[in-house]
Amino acid sequence: MLNDETMCFKIPKEENVDSKEILKKVYEALKEKGYNPINQIVGYILSGDPTYITSHNGARNLIRQIERDELLEKLVKNYINL
Fold first, then answer.
1. Can you state the angle between helices 37-47 and 68-79, rounded to 10 degrees?
2. 7 backbone dihedrals φ, ψ, rounded to 5°
């Protein structure tokens, strides 16, 4: 018997990811390398291209632990104090 119902597949999110701490570490790594951290992080968020983030101190691997849409959502909520 064929089942024609659509199945949902959900990937569990990593619960231990502290976005704020990761963003701070990425910011510091970019600053240490002489980049403008704000411009680089914005470039990454808009494009999804991880090369906007330095690999110094593992920053590129750290930023990949946060979903870009979730990061953007948290930034907007923080900006408007929700």
1. 130
2. -90, 140
pLDDT tens digits for 36-77?
999 999 999 999 999 999 999 999 999 999 999 999 999 999
Residue 9 · residue 35 · CB < 8 Å: no
Phi, psi at 80, each rounded to 5°: -100, 15
pTM: 0.76
Q: DSSP secondary structure string, the chain?
A: ----SPPP--PPPPTT--HHHHHHHHHHHHHHTT--HHHHHHHHHHH--GGGS--GGGHHHHHTTS-HHHHHHHHHHHHTT-
Q: Which two tokens stand for residue 10?
A: 């959900």
